[in-house]
Amino acid sequence: MTKPTDDNDANNAQLAAALAGDQSLFTTLAERHRRELQVHCYRMLGSFDDAEDLVQETLLKAWRKRETYQGRSSLRAWLYGIATNACLDFLEQNPHRVLVRPDNDVAAPGAERPAEVPWLQPYPDRLLDERASPAAQPDAAFTAKETIRLAFLVAIQFLPPKQRAALILCDVLDWSAQETADLLELSVASTNSALQRARATLQRYRPARERQPEAAPDEEERALLERYVSATERGDVPALTAMLQHDVRFSMPPEPGVYVGRDEVVGGWVKGGFGSAWFGDFRCLLTRANEMPAVACYVRKPGAAHFYPLALDVLRIEDGLIQEITTFPLETKAKMFDLPREL
98 exposed, middle or buried (CB, 10 Å; 0-12, 13-18, 19+)? Predict the structure, then answer.
């Protein structure tokens, strides 16, 4: 992964004119970095909505503070610095957005997972492929799949703000310890120490069996997704049960709680009405979120003419079975995933 460079910045004359007060030109130059800045803020916070708000704040701050840009780094890197500080300020104002680690230490990766992350939101894959302009080519850090997946985002919620920033700046954006220390107002030794602790915490809370993301779904995964859609639309509880790992995890941010184990997960679905006539009929569409397969579920209540958005199931698949399902409310997410409001 490479650090943001000047490759996509305008020439010096354009940049000088923008910094001198040409707001329209400044907006044009800054806006080309909006999407990757949004991904950066999303990594820091785990919330799509908060990331959007802080990117907007970043671009406004950049315009107001343009005279502080000294040209020692690229405009792009300067914007990353403003965005990082905006996220740190947000976390300072919202201390509950840092999960508290248990006192006991568990060496095995994934042995101890968080019960819930109420603020967690999905990120549409289609936005990862979006370009600000035909010439814009995001660096590897922008699209690094393992750092946009839900497991990474959940694990990073355990990190104190500056550890979180150090990890992302150094390990995702490939900033040097000195550059990171300068931004975070730490010594290089303190930065390296924070980075070491952050890596250890991340390893502890990421899933032990998480596989490396693939370039595209394989045939086995596609077949599993087709069976999942078919079983959901039929309300076929036994068929869905057969697709789950025995220790499957299920959560529904922002709802509290997590179900662990095939019987508990399926039992919770049945108790909630899945498979019953009064709950309604399902129709599903396949999509992707956080570089993972996702199923958009629509429901038609008895007597209704249309199917309306219900839930987005983001699936983590291991060894041909579903290891984890993170379900988000679809009604407020349909637009961002470019999904219809009704079927």
Answer: middle
The pLDDT assigned to 9 comes to 46
CATH 3.10.450.50 in the chain is located at 219-329
Whole-angstrom distance, CA of residue 59 vs CA of residue 37: 10
Any bridge partners for residue 299, and if so which? 282, 308
Cis preceding-peptide flag for 238 (omega within 30 of 0):
no
pLDDT digits (tens, 9 = 90+) for 115-132: 579 999 999 999 987 644
| Torsion angle in degrees (nearest 10) through CA of 193, 196, 201, 202 | 130
* Nearest Cα residue to 83 out of 194, 173, 196: 173
The CA–CA distances, whole Å, from 300 to 233, 245, 287, 342, 343 equal 11, 29, 20, 10, 9
Q: Determine the Cα–Cα distance for residues 158 and 141; give it in Å rounded to an integer.
A: 21
State how far the Cα of 43 lies from the Cα of 302, in Å rounded to an integer.
40
pLDDT tens digit string along 246-278?
999 999 999 988 999 999 999 999 999 999 999
Architecture of domain 219-329: Roll (3.10)
Contacts of 166 (CB under 8 A, 6+ apart): 180, 184, 191, 194, 195, 198
Q: Give the pLDDT of residue 208.
A: 66
CATH class of 12-205: mainly alpha
Tell me how far apart the alpha carbons of residues 319 and 326 are, in angstroms, rounded to a whole number. 18
| Strand, coil or helix: 322 | strand
The tokens for 100 are 């508290």
**Parts of the chain with a pLDDT under 50:** 1-10, 104-111, 131-143
Q: Cα 310–339–291 angle (5° rounding)?
A: 90
Whole-model pTM: value is 0.88
User: Distance between CA atoms of 33 and 38, rounded to whole angstroms?
Assistant: 9
Q: What token pair was written down for 221?
A: 């995964």
What dihedral angle (degrees, nearest 10) is formed by the CA atoms of 101, 103, 109, 113? -50
Q: Where in the chain is the domain with CATH 1.20.140.160?
A: 12-205
Q: What is the dihedral of CA 9, 11, 17, 22, to 10 degrees?
A: -40
